[in-house]
Amino acid sequence: MAIRIGIAGVTGRMGHLLVEEVRAAGAELVGGTGRAGSRKPAPEGVTLRADIEALADAADVVIDFTNAATAQSTAASMAASGKAWVIGTSGLSEADEAAVGAAGRRIPVVYASNFSPGVNLVLALAERMAAALPADGYDAEIMEMHHRQKVDAPSGTAIGIGRAVAKGRGVALSDVMQSGRHGDTGARKTGAIGFAALRGGQVVGEHTLIFAGATEHIALTHRAFDRRAFATGAVRAALWVAGRQPGLYSMMDVLGMA
């Protein structure tokens, strides 16, 4: 029997790509939800469900690329549904992530800052590089660029890279994160992880991690040219997580890299 997949935010750009990828994977698409108040039509042949509860009721797994403002309410609804949840929504706060974690104690959840296999390889490499390149000798800087419509900064992927660097160095990102430099900031603090966010045009996503030493610089870059990479990864995660035990999983788990 084919896995039944529902798509929250099916009327958006990612929603349309997810519809194509779900169908290509041979799963059953049971419908989706649109943004409240939006008049955007659903992709052809897709049933619009009344709300996230109705969508979860019809599905085995819900894929969610919506808005951070709904993350906590969606987490509560998904936890109550007993169904699996794949969430790639960007810009989640600490409280939002806590709600996602709480849902993971009741249902299987795959939460990732980025579902591209390439980005997840970058995360793994970033952690190993950070462990090998000491903070007192190599300054870590993360630069990202996205399309002009993106509303959150730094991007979720950039923060994910920062967390990987912090983990490799045995520190919490919140203790060393430095973002949005302006004016007389003083000298760079040893051990800081810096972030720079650029916005313009229709850039899908570019991320570069730089380790800057006195005698050498090492750069690790990922460029996404098509959002389909994220959709393909999310559907892969949905097929993987269906029927698993409750828990908070990552794309590293899906790829067998955890």
Write the layout of secondary structure elements.
Blueprint: E1 4-8, H1 13-24, E2 28-33, H2 52-58, E3 61-64, H3 71-81, E4 84-87, H4 94-103, E5 108-111, H5 117-132, E6 138-146, H6 156-169, H7 173-176, E7 177-179, E8 193-199, E9 205-213, E10 217-224, H8 228-241, E11 247-249, H9 251-254
Parallel strand pairs: 1-2, 1-3, 3-4, 4-5, 5-11, 6-8, 7-8
Antiparallel strand pairs: 6-9, 9-10
Helix pairs in contact: 1-8, 2-3, 3-4, 5-6
Which labels suit this protein?
258 residues, 9 helices, Rossmann fold, 5-stranded mixed β-sheet, alpha/beta, 6-stranded parallel β-sheet, 2 domains, Dihydrodipicolinate Reductase, domain 2
Describe the structure.
The chain has a six-stranded parallel β-sheet, sandwiched between helices. Strands 7-8-6-9-10 form a five-stranded mixed β-sheet. The model has no long low-confidence stretch (mean pLDDT 95). With 258 residues, the protein is an alpha/beta fold. It is 36% helix and 24% strand. It folds into two domains: 4-111 and 227-254, Rossmann fold (3-Layer(aba) Sandwich), CATH 3.40.50; 117-224, Dihydrodipicolinate Reductase, domain 2, CATH 3.30.360. The chain has helices at residues 13-24, 52-58, 71-81, 94-103, 117-132, 156-169, 173-176, 228-241, 251-254, and strands at residues 4-8, 28-33, 61-64, 84-87, 108-111, 138-146, 177-179, 193-199, 205-213, 217-224, 247-249.
Total discrete domains: 2
CATH class of the largest domain: Alpha Beta
Structural class: alpha/beta
- Going across the major beta sheet, what is the strand order? 2-1-3-4-5-11
Give the rounded overall mean pLDDT.
95
- The total count of helices amounts to 9
Instruction: Give the overall shape.
Output: elongated
Uncertain segments are: none
Give the DSSP E fraction (strand runs of 2 or more residues): 15-25%
The biggest beta sheet reads: 6 strands, parallel
User: How many strands in all?
Assistant: 11
* Helix-strand topology string: EHEHEHEHEHEHHEEEEHEH
The span between the termini is 29 Å
CATH architecture group name of the largest domain: 3-Layer(aba) Sandwich
The CATH homology group name of the largest domain: NAD(P)-binding Rossmann-like Domain
The rounded Rg comes to 19 Å
Portion of residues within helices: 25-40%
CATH topology of the largest domain: Rossmann fold
